[in-house]
Amino acid sequence: xxxxxxxxxxxxxxxxxxxxxxxxxSTMKICLIPAVALLTACAPSNALVSNQGSSSVxxxxxxxxxxxxxxxVVGADEANAAAxxxxxxxxFTGDYDDPNHPGCLRQVKVVGAPMRADGSxxxxxxxxxxxxxxxxxxxxxTDRPTRSDLWKVQGKTMGKTQAVIDFSAKGGPANLxxxxxxxxxxxxxxxxxxxxxxxxxxxxxxxMSTLKSD
Length: 214
Description:
By secondary structure, the chain is of the alpha+beta class. The chain contains 3 helices and 8 strands.
């Protein structure tokens, strides 16, 4: 009688491979859970638990939740940025001394950006710079300017201590970087406007106690 051939236990191999695959996926999910700790508390349980024949669906559900978490974080950051970067709360707001133009007016105001068509506000604020460079090409200011002597340029914030300002109206760069460091604004050429805490009202036109935003 012909001996029977031994048959490999394929079921055992299949079960082992399936267990190893599910174990790796479970490990991956465990590593990712801390990144979405806030959402996993309220996410459907089947998004984080393996079920037979539904691994790909679970992956899509899980990473869909992860994408939702990113969208929520970005939305919160935009709301906070819009609320925290205007007025006196912004470090750029204030009067400054410009060493390249001693005694001349340098005022910076930070105001909210115009509303979008959908009613939301951009995550940046508008930087308004008003200045005076002296009469007849002088670089030192010894008298007060008139309204017509003033120049104004604008830019926008790029973070809590970063901004870009359009100086093209004065013959400068259209996107000049400005960074607030320590007690003033530093520009790429090394020039630093130092903030004057008590303000510089005496450098404004006599008929203007304050300079209003446009």
